[in-house]
């Protein structure tokens, strides 16, 4: 009986030691992830600290109610009015050097794909950036096709057709209005917009168009 008790105590001590090791590893891993996120996306880090991730389990809204709610927002025509401030901004920007026409090279594609996360959710094409990084023979073809898109000023409809996921804003809600839509666009389209964003940012920086305090858009 005494040996059994000693054995149980020994196992409890081992379990406690392993528990401490797991907690230390988890804390260290969390700090590492937060440090990396701070360097790449401070806004996302602060948002994750203020609002923990919401679980998607539990009751969901009725499908018909969800379709009716979002159709009322997306299917109704809206007439937008340009505010007078747009004319003021246009007059203030009249002296800025116009941006040169964009010429997309294979190196631009390589750099845009390199910066992209490997396994970020894709769109209808189901293609992850991981594969674009590996299929280097496609970079020259993509650069040529992207240039054709800019020259023709026309995008394939597939580029702007995405998969919309509804993310709950709170726990266990069946109200369709309490969900936030996230649309995943095709990876190739995101590569094109990444290239254009880099070129526009370079032009804004070189002409000092954006104030230094402006972080993000």
TrEMBL record:
Record's keyword terms, sorted: Coiled coil
The UniProt record lists the keyword Coiled coil: yes
Coiled-coil zones: 1-28
Domain of life where this protein originates: Eukaryota
The name this protein goes by in its record: (apollo) hypothetical protein
Organism: Parnassius apollo
